[in-house]
Design goal:
Elements (H helix, E strand, L loop, with lengths): L3 H4 L6 H34 L4 H23 L6 H28 L7 H26 L15 H23 L2 H4 L1
Helix pairs in contact: 2-3, 3-4, 4-5, 4-6, 5-6
Subcellular location: Endomembrane system
GO biological process, one term: regulation of autophagy
Membrane topology: Multi-pass membrane protein
């Protein structure tokens, strides 16, 4: 399932660095999501723009994604592919749902707590990530072998290549989405 992204950290010593950095990223994700949750709760006290249960649900989905990242970091692609793939599916799937929910919450907080421009950017990132997530799964599921060094013309190379592009698109979507929180956190 997880193609090129995990290929970067399959062989030692890169695997140790990859796992460590993914776990640090997951921890930073948890912290960011929790701060975002608290911020929305505080804003919601005076504005009542979203149900508290929706905010909690969004946080839980986001935390599931971070747990998925921890699974990806702990169980390497070539060592335990099925567990690694489940972790990747949870990380990417929950991440896409989280940023979509946060985009909706952002719109509900307009114009008092967010600008429509920021909301449009967040929603655009969410839509692109959702669109990339679907072919990522479809093409990754067509790959019949788990390997690292791919060459053009090999069996399943095209599936691997397209899946990798989609996977990196979703991963960078998450990064850019979190960057949109900078102004909110000031």
């Amino acid at each position: 399932f997880s193609s090129c992204f995990s290929d970067t950290g399959t062989k030692p010593p890169e695997s140790g660095i990859f796992g460590f950095m993914i776990n640090i990223s997951a921890l930073l994700g948890v912290i960011t999501m929790y701060i975002r949750y608290l911020l929305i709760e505080k804003q919601n006290e005076s504005s009542h723009f979203v149900r508290s249960s929706c905010n909690i649900f969004s946080l839980c989905i986001g935390l599931m994604g971070c747990i998925g990242m921890g699974i990806v970091a702990t169980f390497q692609e070539l060592s335990v592919p099925s567990v690694h793939d489940i972790g990747a599916l949870v990380a990417f799937g929950s991440g896409v749902v989280y940023i979509t929910l946060q985009s909706i919450i952002s719109y509900k907080s307009c114009p008092q707590w967010n600008t429509y421009f920021v909301c449009h950017i967040r929603m655009a990132i969410s839509v692109i990530s959702c669109i990339a997530f679907i072919p990522m799964i479809v093409f990754a599921s067509q790959i019949s072998m788990t390997k690292i060094d791919w060459t053009p013309g090999e069996k399943d190379y095209t599936y691997h290549f397209v899946s990798a592009i989609c996977e990196w698109t979703v991963a960078f979507g998450f990064i850019f989405f979190f960057l949109t929180f900078i102004r909110d956190f000031q």
